[in-house]
Amino acid sequence: MADRTEIPAGVLQRLRAACLALPETAEEEAWTGTRWVVARKTFAHVVVIADGWPPVYARAAGTDGPATVLTFRLAGPERDALRAAGSPWFAPPWHPDAVGLVLGEDVDWDEVAELVADSHRLMAPRRLGLRNPDADAS
After folding, report:
1. pTM for the whole structure
2. CATH of the domain at 26
């Protein structure tokens, strides 16, 4: 197993700002990388792939690295479109509503903020009143 690779500071700073602005969010060190949770449910997870590790992410993203990837959850047509879009998007096999994005130099951070907000909304408890009732059907 490779040594734990640190998330680039600029990436972590941008994701932290977008995620922690959302209600009842906590940041946690994950088995690899950093994740953000709402009600103990992960809605965003950033990982560095280096030398093919972690292998499940390297296979899903189609790269041995070095690469920084973000995974999040979506529902409906947007999820389907992004999972099928090809690079820099990918379809993580561990959950049918997971979407992955390789964070390159040309990443649109406004779009990333919108996507993690959508993911948070999907994973948030009903008591927060954020969930789209149609999202449960997909």
Report:
1. 0.89
2. 3.90.1150.30
